[in-house]
Each structure stands twice: as structure tokens, then as C-alpha cells.
Design goal:
The complex is a heterotrimer of chains A (374), B (521) and C (361). In chain B, the strands form three sheets. A five-stranded antiparallel beta sheet of chain B has the order 1-2-4-5-3, sandwiched between helices. Chain B has 521 residues and is an alpha+beta fold. In chain B, helix 13 packs antiparallel against helix 14 and helix 13 runs antiparallel to helix 16. In chain B, strand 11 and strand 12 form a beta hairpin. Helix content of chain B is 44%, strand content 12%. Chain C has 361 residues and is of the alpha/beta class. In chain C, the strands form three sheets. Chain C has an eight-stranded mixed beta sheet, sandwiched between helices. A four-stranded mixed beta sheet of chain C has the order 11-12-13-14, sandwiched between helices. In chain C, 41% of the residues are buried. The chains are: A mainly alpha (374), B alpha+beta (521), C alpha/beta (361).
């Protein structure tokens, strides 16, 4: 299929690194440690590796499908499954991205409300945050990539702040090694899905990357870098907290940030939470963009209408989910849906695409050997 | 490419209203005849008509008194005619007789109109002749400055001459410094009533022709009445006129314009304005000072870093103060807690009002200082700065810590070499203060996100404004935050798409050859 | 669209959105003390805060309130204060002796859950009444509202106190394999003195140890770079006292024996300098140095063994041997180890190395 996106709206392939990495790092990294130790305990950092390997394989599968058809998933759905079933699948995928954006947005606002401003109302934050999202997304894909770039590069020095908690670290916490069964490791790997979600948005924005086929290595690098960050955070958290303490802490990364002391500012976690706005913005922007693209291409209307609708929906739903329990449920439901999406639907699509291509190949070979008389 | 509908809001208004009211602009009339033209001219008192000659032969010479050089008229027109004893058979012979190079013979009333208003003398062989000769005796030495010492863009080291209001002098200065056949001047006329001469300058073989084309096209598309200054042109052709950030670099200095041209930008001058406008420019171009190049690269880089840090400090220091004092008292270290609480105890206002009060006082001081004559301005500066500041602290209207912060930020905002950018920095502080008072630290991040997205969406002449930050080009960082030695700055930055990559041979540039003396012994 | 944007932003600035805590409109609390009154089964909270009205030097002042449990204390304190009480800059928490022996579980959970509090808060136990301790800070002799937190911090940095703050306390508190500890402050005629450490079993204080044993505790838990230790020395009929200043100590544990009967040896390598010594010892003679080193070594080992026996008797494990063994064994059975702990053979082996002896002889 021919790529119909104009060159001036495309970005060069190396930016796939920033896009994939920024969509993966969202609010998950602030509290994931508590969930992954449910299976393998303090050896869950090995599960992070396992999850990363599976994500790399899935990303390779995705690229295989996309490069074969040289288009995005909307066209692929239409091609493989026909107009109506394909349209329905696209709408389902768009709805998934909407819920992804909603979850990340609401969880971030919740963190703001718990850690900094307990009396801050959700709609007040939305009044300022949603126009920023509008401004970003309406600038086009290039602007979103720019935000993804800055959302990674600017907060990157925060990684060095991880050194402080290490001073209180007890490396003995990490030992002994390999004291858990394989099944427990797999449970922890499953818990890591939520943190790794986001890379599959390549399915939507693949045509916007120049020379998409060559960009796969940047995508894999992005996944590896996210894994590196998750690994570092997990290891430092495990050294810093005792296992009993970690099960009592809802946001371990932020609690860890409380101990960081720089000469003229205390309470580093306020800086962390404020900067997290910039980290989370590309994730939400990319998901909103994917949703809008799915809807606008299926219904053939200009995307701006859908942008406004999506933002109003975000406002409404974020007010609806208003306490810890419902937000937690939202997170778990999304995690489950994402799990089935990436570990179920993508391999299915991959196999379907392979088989379809093989059948086409056989048909073409048959035609060669026995040309139909015309 | 990039044909932009360059109808500015006021000009767009006249087009709209034209359709609504069908009011005809006085300049858009069909061509007048020569008699109608002369009748129109006679309404002004500075329009002179001379009839010279002998009894049966009278030549008519008409001109605007203010525009012509009377000495030239007497020496070069009247004298030769007297010598010839007024024997001319046709108008065309005037060209051979008079010692003036710019003479044209025409019937075109439009040309006659234009040239007479520029200081040409109209010569008719007989009265009511339609074919006339237009002779240039323009007076050009009056009304303009002779020198420009670039006080607004001062540099300690380096040449201090700059452009003046006279376009020809400016072009002469350009030609004098670049001895190259590739320096091309392209002249256009912009403005309905002012008919300002605008000259586009570029280096052929270096500048990408797309930039020149875009600029030319946009300049030609302008519909405006009087162009007072080239910075008006800058706004009329910019990609986004509702941004606070300057999209083109304007400068009075010759070396800065030349540097932009050498890098692959295009520049234009307009008559009556000492400012040259270069484009396309990026955000980091506005923090470059020519002194960085005249000092050794270590010093140049150091000062550049200080400049950029100064900018950040001046934008974020007061909002941070507001955010921390209003919402985040927990962030203060224990030794700073005492002084800050004490300094604020007797202040009746919330921190926002304090800050806004001081900021607006400083803006008032600045504006007042700019309007006053120099002697009074200096005194008022001292009075304002010291007395008002001290008095407000004593009266407990503000805290003394805040006073220090606000004065430091005011100083820091002046470190940007380009005046337009320092205005932007001054303005940017206020939205951040408002955001900080609404949401604290998170508010500052909100504001920063808005700013970032805004910058990402800006384009200067079609090129992204934030290059080389984004799209990220690691090789272009040689001359942005640091100024690397001349051996490294030989390559032109690629985002301007120049036709030629290298400015000079980098291997031959002066590289410090540090051989160990020990090995030579 | 831009107009809607501007409208939205204006709306947010007009509404007073987040809760303001302007720095001069709140009462910034530095220390809080909890006391348990057994007669009425109530808890008494005391806060220590500075007043800045009278000049740049602050005046510490206290407010006390009684409530049924530690949850109610902030509310009752606000009832007695003209400015809202803010705990964001809390630096130390003092618990009265009865409160600590009664059980600190409730309070610790409250503190751990509060996002306003940093993790560098110094917790301590008062040998007596926390209220009196905090009141003595306001008296003329001390008059520095940051006194308690500075006192503890300074001793951690230079003297015998092991590192302690809220994070370290919570780390041990919530862990199954460790027992927490806290410094003990006592009052001596309006002056506050650091007495030693209080050792917890789960959530109650079971015993306290003095400064000398605290030094051993510091050595045994992790190597350290500070601390002083005094030893009595005797040779023939000459007596004296040596003060050892610790420069560097490295601690390593070694598990001996098997899974059924583990035994642990703690190896201490002490690099120190002799701060004070009696005049009859001539330290330029290597034999003398060896003698001093040997004396110190024997003393440390003896005191260390006695200290560990004391811990075993109380069935507490603040030095975290349990955790160490857990990290070295697969399939660790925590119950079994804890049952074996009181009778386990745990020894201290020390090696003292004198590096410097001062500038004059």
C-alpha cells in the first residue's frame, strides 16, 4: 500500500525511540514495585527482563505486519477483515486507547491530589491540563513527537537522583537469588504488563515515520531503555525498602524520593511530581491522537471534532472516577485488557498476516505456472 | 512554497470592508492625464513651475521644491540650457546635453507621478507637451544620521558601526565588507502610500533559493499603506503574528547581518530604517552576541552559558518564589525558613500581590526611564531603584528577600543581546507568576508545557523554530550553547539547507598544536 | 479556540483552586511529642514551633492537647492555635516512655500514611515525659526550636549514635526479620541529654542501652567512620584509660555451621586513632602499640559478646542477623531461625589497627 502521508508531516526514524519510550513510561513507574513483588518477591527484577524480552518479540511482530502492508492498522483492518468488521475492530482499538489515556490522566491527577493538593478538584486540573493536550494534539504529529522528545530529555537528570536512596540501601534485600518457582516469576511478569503498555501505538502512527521499515531498531532501543529505567528503579526500591515496608507503600518511587536531599531544596518529591506532568503529557497526547485517528479515518470526518469530543469525554469520565478504589479498578481492568491485546491479539494478527501472505504467494506461483487464459 | 496568505489583521479588515462598503482607496484610481496630475500637484505650495528660455522658446521645468537639490538644478540644468541658448529640437536631446546620468523620456503618467515625488524634475519642451523628460536631482543629504554607533547592541570588542536610515548608505556598507560577486541585491517596493524601497540581500550559492523565494513572495503580497520601519515588514510576513517570540532577527550591526548571510540566511533592508531583518532564524540565534566571536572561545562559551542561565533565572525565579511561599513551605531548608517567615510576617498582602506590585514597579521604572531625557532619566533610575525599593521594605509592603530576587531577575532579563527577545522574556514572567499562584509548582510546569508546545509549533519562514533542539541534530550543537573554536565551526548548520556546506577549510584554521615540550627536548 | 483557552485559564486563576499554605499564615511545627496517660487512657500531644513576631530571632513556644488517641491530636491542637498547624516541616517526634512501652503501632501507621511528612524526621524516645522535654527547649538555657533534631543529627554525624530517621525506623518496623531502635533523650536540669538507644520488640520498647553499648551496636550493624570508645587499661600496677577514636570500621558476618545449627561470627576490622592515653605508655614503641591494640581488641570482643547475649535474652534482633542469614539461604524458614536465635552461638571477632597517635608524644 502506498504511504499517503505528506513528507512535511513525517518525522525521521530515530524519533521512534522517543515515541516508544515516552508512551511506555507513564504513571506505572511510580508505583509498580508493589505489584510485581506479588509473585516473585524481591526477585521480580528478573521478571522485568522477561517482560522486556516478550515486548521486543511483540514489537518485531508488529513491525513485520506493518512493513508488509506499509500502512497503519486502520487500513490493515479494512484490508484483512472487510469494511464493517475492520471498522469495528478499529473502533475497539481506538476505545482501548481512549481508556489508556483516561487511566493515565486520572491516575496522574490522583497523585497530584494525594501528594500535593488534597482539596484540588479534578475538574479544575482538567481546565488547565486539557487545553494543553488540545494545543499539543492539534499541532499535528510532529508537535507530539517534539513533546515526546522533551518529555524524555528534560526529566532525564532525575535518574541520577536515584543515587540518594542507595545510601540507605541494603543490598542484602536482593538475596538469595532464584528462590522462587518459575510460575511465581511468570506472575510477576504478568504484573509488569501495565508498565510496558504503550509501544503498540506504533500500529497507529507507523505511516508518519519516514522510512518506517528502517526504524525498528530505534523502537527496540526505546523498549530497552524503558526496561533499563524500570530495572534501576526496581533494584533501588528493593534495596531501599524492606519487603514488609514495600507492601505497605502505595507509591514506592515517590516515597523513595522523599529522602533525596539537595542543598537548597527539601522534599524532592514535589519537584518529581511536577516534572512528571511533562513525562505523562506525551503518553496521553499519543493515545488521544491514536483514538482520534481511528475515529476520524473510520467515519471520514475531520479529526478536530473528535478531538473536542474526546477531551470532553476525558473531563466527564475523570470526574466520574473519584476515589482510590475505582481508579485502582480502572488500572487493573486496563492492565487486563492490555494484556490480552498485546499477548493475544497481536500474535493472532501476526499469524493471520503471515498465512495470508503465504496464500498470496502460493496463488501467485500457481498463476505463474499455469497462466489463466485471458 | 509556503505561499502564506499574508493579509494582516488590519489590512485584512480593509479588504473585507472594501467588499462591504465599496469605498475606493484614493490611490487606486485609473491613470490620470498629465493635466489632471499637474492640477493635483499645484494644490501643494511646494510645487514650483519655472519657465525658462528666450522669448519665443520657453522650456517648462516643474519640480517639488523640497525634494530637489537647488544647487544641482542651477548648476546642472539651468546653466547648460543657458549655454546652449535654449536651442533644443526634441526632448530626447536632453539626455545628451545635460551632465546628469538618470534622465528618462516618457509619456507614462504613472512613472511621472512616481518620479516627481521622488525628487525628479519634469522638463517640457513646450507647454502642454505630453512627452516629458524626467531628470534626477534628488537631494539626499538631509534628514538622516551620518553615523550609527549601535548603542542598542553595544559590544566592547569589535566594530561599532551600524546601519543608518538611508538605504543607499546601508547597501554601500554591505558591499564594502563582502567583496564577492555572489552578494545579490533584489529590490522591491512595498507600501501603497510610502512606496518604500525594500532590498533583499543574499549570497548566491550559499543561501537556499527557497528562502529567497518565500521572502520575495511574502513581501510582494503585502498590502499596507506606509511602512515606517523594517520591523513592521517583519511582522507582516511572519508565519505566526500572535506569538510573543520574534521570528526574524533584527539588528543594526553589520557583522551580525553578515554572519547570518554567511550561514545561509537571507536579509532585507528597507528605506528609512536602520534595522536589517534576517531570516529564517531559530530560538537560539537570539542569544548569540558578536562578542562571543571576538573573544577566545572559552570565554565566549562561558558568557553564552551565563546568558542562557540568566534567561532561565529571570523567567522562573519569581514564580518559584510565589509557588514555594504560597504552597510549598515544606521545600525550604531549615535555615532559610526563619529569614523568609520573618521577612513576610508584617506584609499584609499575599505573595502574588507582593510580586506583581514589585514587577509592575520595575516595568514602570523601565518605561519611564526610556521616555525621559537622559539626565533626568539617570536620576530617576537611582531614585526609583534605591529609594522606592528601600521604602517599600521599611513600610512592610514587600519583603526584602523578594526585593533582591526581583531586582536580580530584572538584571538577568537584560542579558539577551537582541532587544526583541529581552522584551519577550520580560513578558513571559507574568503568565508563569499567574500559573504559580494558581497551582504552585505544578502550575509552573503547566506553564512550561504550554510554552514548550507553543515553541514547537512556531515556524520561521517555514523552518521549525526550535532547531537544533528539536528536530534533534546533535552535530549542530557546535555553536549554540557553547561556541567551539574556529576549527569546529567551519560547517554551516544544516537546518538552513545551505547549498554549500563548508565556510572555510577547518584543517587550516588555527588549531592549538599542543605538543609536549618534553618530547622536543 | 484560543479564546476558549484564555477563558479557561482565566477561570482557573479566579477560583482559588488549591489549598494555600502561605508561609506566614501557618504555624510551622518543628517537633511533636506524644505522652500516654495511663490513668485516663488518653494521649497527650505537644507541639513545638517558632514565633517570629518579635524580631528576626525566633522564640520557641509550645501547645499541648489531650485526646483519646493519637489521631485526634492535630484537631485538638488546632483548637488552641491562632494559625493553622502545619506539619510539613516536622523534624522530630518525641515519644514519652510510657507511650513507647504501651505500643507505637497506631502512631507509626499514621505517620507512614501522611504524605506531608518527609522521611528525614528524627524519632526519639524521652526518658520520662515528652511534654516536659519539649517545654525545656523553650526555656532560656536552650531556646532553639530546632534543638532536638539538631542534637540527634549532630551525634549521628560525629559520635556514637547509629543513623536513624523515619525511613530507617519504618524499614525495620515493617519487616518481619528485623527489630527497630530509637535514640533515648533524657533531661538533666533543663538540659537535654542523649542517653542511649531504646530497642523495640515489634511495637514496644523492651530495653535501653547506654552510649558505650550504642557504639558497639553502631559497629556491629554497619561499618562506620565515627565514634569514640573508652577502655580501661592495666599493666602491672599502672592503670589508665584509653580513648579510641574510630576512623574506619568494616563489618563482615560469617555463617558457620549448617542449616540445623547455624552460628554466626561478626568480624570487625577497626582502624582507629588513640585520642587520649595515660602518660606512662610510650606509643613510639611498636610493642606498646601492639599491647594497646590487643587490649582494645579483647575489650571489644568481650563487650560485644555480652551485648549480643543481652539481645538474645530479650529475644530481639536489631542487628539483623536474621535478615543476613535469610539473604544467604534458599528456602529460609524464619520461624525456625527465630526459635533458635536465643541459644545461637554468635561471637564477635575484632581486629584493631592503630593508625595515628597524635602529633606530639
Amino acid at each position: 500500500m502506498h504511504n499517503t502521508i505528506k513528507e512535511e508531516n513525517q518525522v525521521s526514524p530515530s524519533f521512534l525511540f522517543f515515541l516508544v519510550h515516552s508512551t511506555q513510561i507513564g504513571v506505572g513507574i511510580l508505583g509498580f514495585q508493589r505489584y510485581i513483588i506479588k509473585g516473585a518477591g524481591y526477585e521480580a527484577w528478573i521478571s522485568i527482563f522477561l517482560a522486556a524480552i516478550s515486548v521486543c518479540i511483540l514489537l518485531a511482530m508488529i513491525f513485520n505486519i506493518l512493513t508488509r502492508e506499509n500502512s497503519d492498522i486502520i487500513d490493515i483492518h479494512r484490508l484483512y477483515f472487510g469494511k464493517y468488521l475492520g471498522g469495528a475492530l478499529t473502533l475497539a482499538a481506538s476505545a482501548y486507547y481512549f481508556i489508556f489515556a483516561l487511566t493515565i490522566y486520572r491516575t496522574y491527577v490522583e497523585i497530584l491530589q494525594i501528594w500535593m493538593f488534597p482539596q484540588l478538584e479534578t475538574w479544575v486540573v482538567s481546565l488547565v491540563y486539557l487545553p494543553i493536550i488540545y494545543y499539543t494534539v492539534s499541532g499535528g504529529f510532529r508537535v507530539i513527537t517534539g513533546i515526546a522528545f522533551f518529555g524524555i530529555v528534560l526529566p532525564l537528570p532525575l535518574v541520577f537522583a536515584l543515587i540518594y536512596p542507595l545510601k540507605y540501601g541494603h543490598l542484602n534485600n536482593l538475596f538469595p537469588l532464584f528462590d522462587h518457582t518459575i510460575w511465581e516469576f511468570l506472575i510477576s511478569t504478568k504484573m509488569m504488563t501495565f508498565e510496558n503498555l504503550g509501544f503498540e501505538s506504533v500500529l497507529f502512527f507507523y505511516p508518519f515515520i519516514k522510512n518506517g521499515a528502517t526504524s525498528q531498531k530505534w523502537g527496540q532501543l526505546g523498549v530497552l531503555f524503558s526496561t533499563f529505567l524500570y530495572l534501576c528503579t526496581a533494584l533501588v526500591s528493593f534495596a531501599y525498602f524492606s519487603q514488609g515496608q514495600l507492601t505497605h507503600t502505595i507509591w514506592p518511587t515517590l516515597t523513595m524520593a522523599k529522602i533525596i536531599e539537595i542543598p537548597f531544596l527539601q522534599r524532592f518529591e514535589y519537584i518529581l511530581i511536577s516534572l512528571w506532568l511533562l513525562v505523562v503529557l506525551p503518553t496521553i497526547a499519543v493515545s488521544v491522537w491514536c483514538t482520534i485517528r481511528g475515529f476520524s479515518k473510520t467515519f471520514n470526518k475531520p479529526p478536530t471534532i473528535f478531538l473536542i469530543l474526546v477531551l470532553i469525554a476525558l473531563l466527564g469520565f475523570s470526574i466520574f472516577f473519584d476515589d482510590r478504589e475505582t481508579i485502582d479498578q480502572l488500572n487493573t481492568r486496563l492492565s487486563m485488557t492490555g494484556f490480552y491485546f498485546i499477548y493475544g491479539y497481536i500474535p493472532f494478527l501476526f499469524l493471520y498476516s503471515l498465512i495470508r501472505a503465504k496464500i498470496k504467494q502460493k496463488k501467485a506461483q500457481k498463476e505463474e505456472r499455469e497462466p489463466t487464459l485471458s | 512554497m509556503n505561499k502564506l496568505p499574508v493579509i494582516e489583521s488590519h489590512a485584512r479588515g480593509t479588504v473585507m470592508f472594501k467588499h462591504l462598503f465599496k469605498r475606493k482607496n484614493a490611490d487606486d484610481q485609473p491613470k490620470k492625464s498629465l493635466d489632471e496630475l499637474i492640477n493635483q500637484f499645484k494644490k501643494s505650495s511646494d510645487f514650483m513651475t519655472l519657465a525658462i528660455g528666450s522669448q519665443h522658446r520657453k522650456y517648462i521645468i516643474t519640480y517639488f521644491k523640497q525634494l530637489v537639490n537647488m544647487q544641482s538644478v542651477e548648476d546642472k540644468i539651468l546653466e547648460p540650457f543657458q549655454k546652449l541658448d535654449f536651442t533644443l529640437s526634441s526632448v530626447q536631446e536632453v539626455e545628451n546635453v545635460l551632465p546628469i546620468e538618470d534622465i528618462s523620456v516618457t509619456k507614462d503618467t504613472k512613472e511621472i507621478l512616481e518620479k516627481m515625488l521622488r525628487g525628479y524634475v519634469m522638463f517640457q519642451l513646450h507647454k502642454d507637451d505630453k512627452l516629458v523628460a524626467l531628470i534626477k536631482v534628488q537631494s539626499f543629504d538631509t534628514g538622516f544620521r551620518k553615523e550609527n554607533e549601535t548603542e542598542n547592541e553595544f559590544s566592547v570588542v569589535g566594530p561599532k558601526i551600524g546601519f543608518v536610515e538611508d538605504l543607499d548608505v546601508n547597501l554601500y556598507l554591505m558591499r564594502k565588507t563582502v567583496i564577492s560577486e555572489n552578494l545579490i541585491f533584489k529590490e522591491l517596493t512595498v507600501g501603497n502610500k510610502s512606496k518604500t524601497r525594500v532590498v533583499l540581500v543574499y549570497l548566491e550559492g550559499v543561501t537556499n533559493p527557497q528562502h529567497v523565494e518565500t521572502m520575495t513572495q511574502r513581501l510582494e503580497d503585502i498590502d499596507f499603506d506606509v511602512i515606517f520601519d523594517s520591523t513592521m515588514l517583519d511582522q507582516l510576513i511572519s508565519d505566526n503574528s500572535s506569538t510573543a517570540f520574534p521570528l526574524f532577527l533584527t539588528t543594526e550591526r553589520i557583522d551580525r547581518v553578515l554572519f547570518s548571510l554567511l550561514n545561509g540566511q537571507a536579509a532585507f533592508f528597507s528605506s528609512g530604517s536602520p534595522y536589517a531583518v534576517t531570516g529564517p532564524s531559530t530560538l537560539l540565534d537570539f542569544f548569540v552576541s558578536p562578542e562571543d566571536y571576538y573573544l577566545p572561545w572559552v570565554l565566549g562559551s562561558f558568557f553564552r552559558v551565563i546568558r542562557i542561565l540568566g534567561v532561565f533565572f529571570s523567567i522562573f525565579a519569581t514564580p518559584l518564589y510565589v509557588a514555594i511561599v504560597t504552597y510549598h513551605y515544606e521545600m525550604l531548608p531549615k535555615d532559610l525558613l526563619g529569614p523568609i517567615i520573618f521577612s513576610r510576617t508584617n506584609v499584609p498582602f499575599p505573595p502574588v500581590i507582593e510580586v506583581l506590585f514589585l514587577e509592575i514597579t520595575i516595568e514602570l521604572l523601565r518605561e519611564a526611564g526610556a521616555r525621559l531625557p537622559t539626565k533626568v532619566g539617570q536620576t530617576l533610575g537611582i531614585v526609583g531603584g534605591i529609594v522606592i525599593g528601600q521604602a517599600t521594605v521599611e513600610a512592610a509592603l514587600t519583603s526584602n528577600i523578594l526585593l533582591i530576587i526581583v531586582s536580580l531577575t530584572a538584571l538577568a532579563s537584560f542579558t539577551t543581546p537582541i532587544f526583541k527577545m529581552s522584551n519577550t522574556i520580560r513578558l513571559l514572567r507574568f503568565p508563569f507568576i499567574l500559573f504559580a499562584t494558581a497551582f504552585g509548582l505544578v502550575g509552573i510546569t503547566f506553564g512550561f508545557c504550554f510554552l514548550l508546545v507553543h515553541l514547537l509549533r512556531l515556524k520561521s519562514l517555514g523552518m521549525p523554530y526550535l532547531v537544533p533542539l528539536f528536530p534533534f541534530r546533535p552535530t549542530e550543537y557546535r555553536d549554540t550553547f557553547l561556541r567551539l573554536p574556529y576549527s569546529h565551526t567551519a560547517k554551516r548548520p544544516s537546518y538552513l539547507r545551505p547549498l554549500e556546506r563548508f565556510r572555510y577549510n577547518p584543517n587550516k584554521a588555527n588549531k592549538a598544536k599542543r605538543k609536549s615540550n618534553l618530547d622536543n627536548e | 479556540m484560543k479564546r476558549i483557552l484564555i477563558l479557561c485559564t482565566c477561570l482557573t486563576f479566579l477560583t482559588s483552586c488549591a489549598d494555600r499554605e502561605t508561609i506566614d499564615e501557618i504555624q510551622v511545627v518543628n517537633s511533636i511529642g506524644y505522652d500516654y496517660i495511663p490513668q485516663s487512657n488518653k494521649v497527650r500531644g505537644t507541639i513545638l514551633y517558632p514565633i517570629y513576631k518579635y524580631g528576626p530571632t525566633e522564640e520557641p513556644s509550645i501547645i499541648a492537647a489531650t485526646a483519646n488517641s493519637s489521631f485526634d491530636i492535630p484537631l485538638r491542637l488546632n483548637n488552641k492555635s491562632s494559625l493553622p498547624v502545619a506539619f510539613g516541616q516536622l523534624r522530630s517526634i518525641v515519644m514519652g516512655k510510657e507511650f513507647a512501652t504501651h505500643g507505637v503501632d497506631e502512631l507509626v501507621n499514621t505517620i507512614a500514611r501522611n504524605p506531608d511528612l518527609g522521611r528525614n524526621i528524627k524519632l526519639s524516645i524521652a526518658d520520662g515525659n515528652a511534654h516536659e522535654l519539649l517545654s525545656s527547649v523553650t526555656k532560656k538555657k536552650i531556646k532553639d526550636y530546632q534543638f532536638i533534631s539538631n542534637l540527634i543529627e549532630q551525634n549521628i554525624r560525629t559520635e556514637n549514635l547509629p543513623n536513624t530517621n523515619l525511613q530507617i525506623f519504618l524499614f525495620s518496623f515493617f519487616s518481619d526479620d528485623r527489630d527497630p531502635y530509637l535514640p533515648v533523650l533524657t533531661q538533666q536540669k533543663d538540659a537535654i541529654k542523649l542517653k542511649g538507644l531504646a530497642l523495640f520488640k515489634k511495637q514496644k520498647v523492651v530495653t535501653t542501652i547506654g552510649m558505650k553499648e550504642t557504639f558497639l551496636f553502631k559497629l556491629l550493624t554497619s561499618g562506620t567512620k565515627h565514634g569514640r570508645y573508652s577502655v580501661k587499661i592495666k599493666e602491672s600496677d599502672r592503670k589508665g584509660e584509653i580513648i579510641l577514636q574510630n576512623l574506619r570500621t568494616k563489618t563482615k558476618y560469617e555463617i558457620k555451621g549448617n542449616h540445623q545449627n547455624p552460628s554466626i561470627v561478626a568480624h570487625l576490622t577497626v582502624d582507629g586513632l588513640v585520642k587520649e592515653f595515660p602518660g606512662w605508655i610510650d606509643l613510639t614503641d611498636p610493642a606498646n602499640i601492639k599491647m594497646v591494640e590487643k587490649t582494645l581488641q579483647k575489650d571489644i570482643e568481650k563487650d560485644g559478646d555480652a551485648f549480643i547475649k543481652k539481645l538474645q535474652r530479650h529475644k530481639i534482633d536489631p542487628i539483623c542477623f536474621t535478615d543476613y542469614v535469610r539473604s544467604k539461604t534458599r528456602g529460609f524458614n524464619s520461624e525456625k531461625f527465630k526459635a533458635q536465635y536465643p541459644d545461637m552461638n554468635i561471637k564477635v571477632k575484632a581486629r584493631v589497627h592503630l593508625i595515628q597517635t597524635g602529633i606530639s608524644n
